[in-house]
Every structure is written in C-alpha cells, then in structure tokens.
Amino acid sequence: MSDTVQQVKDKLSIVDVVSQYVKLERSGTNLRARCPFHAERTPSFFVSPERGTYHCFGCNVGGDIFSFVEQIEGLDFKGALKVLAEKAGVELVYERGGKEQKDERERLFELLEVATIFYTSRLSDAAKKYLKERGMKDVTMQEFRLGFAGGEWSMLSDHLKTKKFTDKEILDAGLAKKNERGSLTDKFRNRIIFPIADSAGRIVGFSGRIFGEEAHPDAPKYLNSPETPLFHKSKILYGFDKAKVPIRKLNCAVLVEGQMDLLASHQSGWGNTVAVSGTAFTPEHAQLIRRMTDNIVIALDADAAGIKAAGRAARAALQGGLNVKVAQLPSGLDPADLILKEGADAWKKSIRDSKDIITFLLDVLEEHAKSKDNFRRSVEIVVLPFLADVTSPIAREQYLGEIAKRLGVSESAVAEAFAKVPSSPEAGASRETPQSATRESVDYGKVKQAYAILLWQQSLPKPAIDVAAFKAKLEEAAGPEVSKNLEKLTGELESLRFGAERLFARTQSLSGEFETLIRVILSERLSRELAEASLALKKAENTANEAEIAIHMQSTQLLTKKIAELHKKG
Fold first, then answer.
1. What is the pLDDT of residue 341?
2. What pLDDT sits at residue 369?
3. Any idea which fold 240-353 has?
4. Other CB atoms closer than 10 Å to residue 515's CB: what's the count?
C-alpha cells in the first residue's frame, strides 16, 4: 500500500485536491479560501503548493491531501486513499498475507461488498417490473446497485460463510440476528434492497422495501440496517457519494425522504439530491452538507407528517448554519409520484419555486389562519422558535423585518417577543450578541496563530521578519481588547510556536504571508465593528433618534470605506 500512497502523491498536488472542494485565490506564493471546516466570512484557510500542505488560521487544522480528504469527507485513511486513488487514476493494490492482518473495519467493508453483489445478482424480474412501474430505468437500477432479498431464512448468511466470513462479522455488519437455536437468520427477506454508501462510495448498510407475495403483511414497509461500526444513520445520507460533486457544482443540496424519491430525482437530472436513511435529518447531516454548500432545499412529502418532518429538518439545518428553503409539493404527492405522474418539469418547478423557510411558514400559517389574531399567535408559537435557530445575526434582522411586515406591527415588538423565546442548546451560540460571538473568534483563532509565529521568530538568532514591527501591526489589526491579552498567552502558545516553525520553516516569503494574515485579522475586526454599527443604526431608526442615526450612519460609512480599501490592497 505504501507504493500506492506515493503514486497518488506523485500524481495529485494539494491544489488539485483542495480546489475541488473550495474556491482558491492567489495570495503571494500561497493560495487562500474560506475554510471548509468552520464558518467564516474572511478567508483564513491557506494552501501551500510548495510544501503540499494546507493550514487554517481560524480553526488551526492542517495537513496533506490525505488528512484533508479524511476530514472533509468524514473518512478513515483507507477511505481517503480510495477517493484519491480514483481521482489520480491509480489502481489500489493492497498487501496480502505475511504478518499484516486486515483490521475489523476493512473486513466489514469487504463483507458488505460481497453482500451487495449477492443482492444485485438476485434482482428478480418481478422486482424490476415493479421498479419500472415506479418510473425507474435499468441504468438507474445498475448505478445505484439495487438488489433483492428472497424469502429464504439464511441464504445470505450461508453465502457469506462460504466466503470465509464469521458469524460475528455477519452480526457486526447488521445483516443477521441469532435465532432461538443459536444459528443466523438474515435480517433482510422479501425486500428490494437499496445499498447505502459512505462518501467514498463504500457500502456501509442497506435499506429494504417490502416486496413479494411471500412478504408478511405486518412487516414494516421499509427496514434499515441497525447501527454498526460502519453505519451511523445520524451521519449517513443516502446518495451522498454520488451527489457531492453536483452539490458543489450547483451550490445547493436537495433533501428528500426516501430512496425512491432520491432515485427519481437523480434520474430527472437533479444529481444534487440526498435522502435520510431511517432517521430524521440531524445537525450531523447538516454539517455533512455544509462541507459542500451553504444551501439546502427540503422537499419532503406534502402530507401533515411530511410537513412536520420538513419543519424538524429545517431546524436541524438552520442550527447547522445552512440557508434553508422548502419546496411545496402538490397535496398527496411525494417527489417520486410527482415525477411519475406530472413529469420532471413539475419537479423542477417545485424546486425552483421553493421558498425561504420563514416565508414558507408564514405563507402556510396565514393561509390556514381563521383570523389575524390567530395568525399572530401561530407566528409566535411556530415561527419564532425557527428564528432562534438562525445563526446569522444579519439574517435574523431581515426575518424580523419580514415577520413584522406580515403581522402589521413594529420590528421592535417582534424583537421583544423573540427575546422571550427559549433557545435550544444547539442554537445557543447563535443567540449571542455580535460582540461576543466575533470577539472570541478573534481572540483564539488567527491572532493566536500569528502570535505563535512571532514567538518562533523571536527565538531565532536571525529572524526573517522585523518582530517588533509586525507585533505592533498585529496589535493594531486585532484591536485593543485583544492586543492587551497577547502577553498572557505565552505559556499556552509554546506548543504552537513549534507548529508555526514546522509550517513556515521552508517558506521563502514569511513577511508576505504574515502581511496577508494581518489583513485577514483586520478585515474580520472591521466587519465585526460594521455589524455592530449597523445593528445600532437599525435600533436608532426604529426609535427615530436623529442624533444617534447621524452618529451610527457616519460610523457605518467610515467602516465600509475602510473595508473596501483593505480589499483593494488584498
């Protein structure tokens, strides 16, 4: 495997890999972007083509092409190697025999692949006929590796044993359970099988839809793999391995509820569609989506249960920092039925006409409200809790304005009602004031990393930069409330000093890179101050205080000018 790793490194540069996930821009000898691992407005994520490494000054992560793919795709090393080998066109060759033993996870991956081949080879004509009646094409069945589990009690388990897999491995993979006699009984029987893959395309579990004359009438319509060492339903999205590239390309993900909905959507040209697998949409799912885009359209069933599920999914997505829209489907139709009965254009229109979550809720509540007072109470009970999940202070201000306009009341009245809404634990950070939220990111992010570089340079006999001059620039850029605490961080930063040395020891333009970092820190501080000034201006306008309006107006104009000048220099 070591030869394979080197071949991949020889064929893929750090720029080749990272640029497929984020938009890079030139910054001296390096490239920079907004970090894909944490939310930020100003780029603090740097890529060094010279060293073949990346580093974020905001969240302090870094590494090479393998660690990048591991983190952004949520994979282990072997999963990242599989992804990168495919990109590089390098055939994976694993060392076999000798003293090396395959770990348990690798054995489970192999077992699930064998099971997938077993199921797909048994996709019956009756199952194919049903799938085609639901609008599925042969190419879609093949691409998503659909299969079939017959009614036999242990056919899969017996087959896996012939491939030298143990009872324990079959149980650990979630494909069987022990019966009263102590032998294995297959979990999936009389079902159309949908293999579920991780982001590298490796099968980690299955979902099975009941099918066939032998199926028990009381059996659940859908059955999913249980939690296993590989399958965690709160972190896995069906179809994500195929959707991640279209999601990045279209800068949007579409969320549906079931496997058939996803297949129909992909078949209709919406390759950016993903589906949950036997669970509600979770904040972990939201983080998975956010690696690719900040935007999601939720398109769940149009019945009452679907609308409730859409609401729960929207809250999780908002808490995860996503911009959320909802596609309203015709009553009684799920996405697969809509596409089958009314065509792909109808599905396209529903996605294109999707509404921002707050607008969607206001429209639905207003449509069903019996009176204005009833509408107001519904907004307080239903809409304001969603507002508590919005992480952007600016977005919340905009929503407050829209809600006030719909209710015919002042924004201050809505803001007062919103202040009484208890915030969920996940949304606690989003309810912080702009001052507290941004000041912490300045204190413990890029400033700390920059100060670590200064400590490293200060310890050298011949520093590559003027330490005193750059320290003064850093203190000026970070602001007085941060610079006065720099000296107190020395003990904590001792370990970072060595990290800075490893990261920058070979660079030929430390001065230029440090100047860029200073500009990023200053830009973030100015942006924070602009957000605070804009908020103060809004409050002054609401109270019609002309004196304060003039002061805050002048402040926002000055800060806007400074930010524009800074961007010109960058």
1. 94
2. 87
3. Dna Topoisomerase Vi A Subunit; Chain: A, domain 2 (3.40.1360)
4. 17
Q: Which residue has the higher pLDDT, 331 or 380?
A: 380
- The per-residue pLDDT for 436 is 37
Q: Do domains 2-88 and 240-353 have the same CATH topology?
A: no
The pair of structure tokens assigned to 257 is 């509820």
CA–CA–CA angle 537, 540, 543 (5° rounding): 155
- pLDDT, residue 453, reads 83
* 40 against 298, higher pLDDT: 298
What pLDDT is stored for residue 440 in this prediction?
A: 42
> What CATH superfamily classification does 2-88 receive?
Zinc finger, CHC2-typedomain (3.90.580.10)
Strand partners, 289: none
**pLDDT above 70: residue 216:** yes
Superfamily for the 104-224 domain: DNA primase, catalytic core, N-terminal domain (3.90.980.10)
Q: Between the CA of residue 553 and those of 67, 532, 538, 545, what are the distances in Å?
A: 46, 12, 10, 12
β pairing state of 295-298 and 323-326: parallel
Residue length of the chain: 570
Give the pLDDT of residue 304: 66
Alpha-carbon gap, residue 239 to 262, rounded angstroms: 7
Place of tokens 């309006």: 549
Rounded Cα–Cα distance for residues 569 and 520 (Å): 11
The CA–CA distances, whole Å, from 224 to 190, 207, 282, 289, 532 equal 14, 4, 17, 22, 48
Q: Would you say 4 and 85 are in contact if contact means Cβ atoms under 8 Å apart?
A: yes
Q: What pLDDT is attached to residue 302? A: 62
User: Average pLDDT for residues 367-380, to the nearest whole number?
Assistant: 89
Chain CA centroid to CA 184, Å: 38
Q: How far apart are CA 339 and CA 348, in angstroms?
A: 9
d(CA 274, CA 196): 11
| Averaged pLDDT of the chain | 85
**How far is the C-alpha of 169 from the C-alpha of 230, rounded, in Å?**
12
Domain limits, the chain: 2-88, 104-224, 240-353, 362-431, 436-569
Rounded Cα distance between 206 and 200, Å, is 16
Which pLDDT score, from 0 to 100, does residue 94 have? 57
